[in-house]
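Subject: complex prediction, re-run

Hi both,

The earlier run crashed halfway through, so I resubmitted it with identical inputs.
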Amino acid sequence: MAEKAAVPGAARVGWRAVVLDWALPIALCVVFIAAISQVDDRYLARVIALVVVWALIGMSWNLIGGYAGQPSLGQAAFVGLGAYTAILLMIRVGLTPWLGLVAAAGVAIVAALVIGIPTLRLKGVYFALASLVYPLILLLVFTYLGYQEVLVPAHNDNPDLYMSWSDTWHYAALAALFLLLAWLFTTALERSRWRVVLQSIREDEDAARSTGINTALVKLVVFSTSAVFASLAGVVYAMLILVVTPEAVFGLSVSVQALVVSLVGGMARRLGPILGACILIPITNFLDANLGATSGASLLAYGLVLITVVLVVPRGLLNAGTRPLEVVNRVLPQSLRLPVNRRRSLPSRPPSGSRPLVPTHPGDEAVLIAADARKVYGGIVAIDRLSLEVRSGEFLGIVGPNGAGKSTFFDLLTGYQRSTAGRITLLGRVVTHWPAYRIARLGVRRSFQIARPFGQLTVFDNVFLGSLQNADGGQRTADTWAALEAVGLEVHADVGARSLVPAQLRLLEVARALAGRPAILLLDEPLAGLTRSEARDLMQLLRTQQHAGLTIVLVDHDIGTVAAWADRLYVIDYGRNIADGAPKEVMRDDRVVTAYLGSRWRAARA
Amino acid sequence: MGLQYLVDGLLLGGVYALLAAGLAMIFGIMRVINFAQGEFMMLGMYAAYFGYTVLGLDPYLVALPAGLMILALGIVVATGLIERIPRGDQDAQLLLTLGLSLVLQNLAIAIFGVTPHALLRPYSNTLIAVGPLFVHESWLFACVASLVVMLGLYLFLSRTWTGRALRATADDASAATYVGISVRRMHSIAFGIGVGLAGLAGTLIATFHAVLPTVGQDFVLIMFVAVVLGGLGSIPGAVLGAIFVGVVQSVSAAFVPLQLQNAVVFLLFVVVLLVRPRGLFGLRVRV
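This time it finished cleanly. Structure:
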């Protein structure tokens, strides 16, 4: 139960939620199968089967395209591989398609890894363009190999073993079972901490990494799962259409349909692809049946739908208006109201006296050491052999004029960029080549120069993300509340992060970092855009954390303000360290004065 | 033998350059990846085909008027559809142009049918012997025409005020508004010119390639490769990229079966995206 309570958004886990999440879909699936087994009309049964298959394909797309926010144009790769794997194994070695399903899923996972590992590094439209190409390559290869037209062999002797049913409803029932599986899987995602993790990746991957999320791994897992469901759909689809051609399973139209059914129904919504398929598949099937499959009528319809949806309801029908559950709730008496996701109740605050966020560090050993760190872009040296040691519990200010290389240095320390040479040690570990999320997990957290909140999530969920990696169970909730209280945002916990004002966003970033129980906190220009009094409040807050044992490194160009609060100043100019010491001495240093006044003088001349 | 493939590739690449320049212009100025670029080329091909079969005009006479008509169509599409999407929402823009591509392609199927047509002119299948090499006359003409059009594009962009305003918008749209440039108008003009170039290229390509509604699909990927190779948004980069793709496509014919020739181009595309998403030539990067 402790684990459940730790998940924000798990609406009070009552019997209604259990019924709605698990029992209802299973019951509906059983009812559906019972109902369709009574359908005698072959054409109707076929259309229903197609609707279910496409809902499943759409649901598989929705995992990667909707939930993980990677706009794939290549779902056909997995549908096609699933279809061809099962059918070729059936023809070549007489394998039953039931085992073909397993083989198809295996092939899909391998393909998802081969495609995903390199391709998921790309962002947005670049990912979309690259993903587009894989099924087209497969299409050409399968055509070349001579699989232009593969017929599913008929096995009337044992239809159940070879899925050679004469009644089309069997295929619909089978697809419905997989659809149920996909639905339950998606439900589990939405009810677990994966909901906030995926939302964070969808909104801002860099910021997600700063909370210690291994975004590459998460995306790969979701991509592979999505591929498995697509390949299962591919097998059923092949058995249903009986003649498999590369164009029918690898064609661009398959990827487009997968995307359009999800998009029309609603992105990142469980019901979306089902709704989309129910609307679109009967229409296009009707067009194909009456005008011929080569008439282009159904694809024309998809094109028109795509344009209309993008212009009119960009997030899909379900995201456009009232949520269906809310409509249902309106007619139900108060006591029977169903839990609705958006109105999530926050996990309760633990009684005060939870463990302190900042772990006390003994002594004053060096917790951050940069040795001869260097960064070169092309021929330009941005950072030239910077060496720095920060002791435990210290409050260090890294200052320098604009363009001095502060932010680059900051990125090297936090794993957002790789140094060209040199060595960086954090908390006794050499982290020079570590990715950002590992550094965050180590207990070194950062904030961003321009605050990067996850606007679609609540303030609580934003901070909760920070606590995910360094605690477990109920401790996460406790850490989240403690971090919110430390910055004074606890009264706004259930507010959407996008409605915060700039100063609050800064605090939110600090809270997100603190929730991860960091040993070192690095802040990139946290004072930018704050008023004098807001800046003072923030610095006071940081000072409190420092006294609790936190090591703080703050980067800013406002040398005056930083000098008033930091224990030590480290001045950078032109990528080099020009002064390092107590603020009072550094401020009098000739080179520092020249660097600052010189830059103004240059600015005045320009 | 090897040299023959190279010459073929250079000539083809010269024609692709026109297609790629249009796509690069649209991306450079609007930051929109135009999926429907191939379909505008297809419209140009049908213009050439009907110009010849119905009016008896040579494709080279049809090229400019067809290009201008498609340019006008492009301006309508940009103003009526693409500019309605919030700027910067690249996913939505991509989906919109994808929808546009499906609509144009399948409207063409509905109207013209799926049968491929051939536009045969005296120069269509003629080879000129130059020393040990053979040069396709139709490719040579198309390549030369393409170079002429690109020279015109260069002069337009560098010598006219509209051209300068377009470049200013590409550099910094908000700064452009400060000096009184209507970004919305520039976007529409850029889209119009971009697809107009594709349409014009289509009329040239129709002289040596079968005319059919789905022809755009293969070509759009070739254009994407060229544009990504050149560093998305850079017109000179796209031209170099297109020539490179032409050569790769042609030379690969020596090593891989004909059916897989496009697979090589697609593979090249993925590899470039993965390894050098900023393009091969290190030209202006504006991503």
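The domain at 364-443+519-532+551-606 of chain A is CATH 3.40.50.300 (Rossmann fold).

- K.
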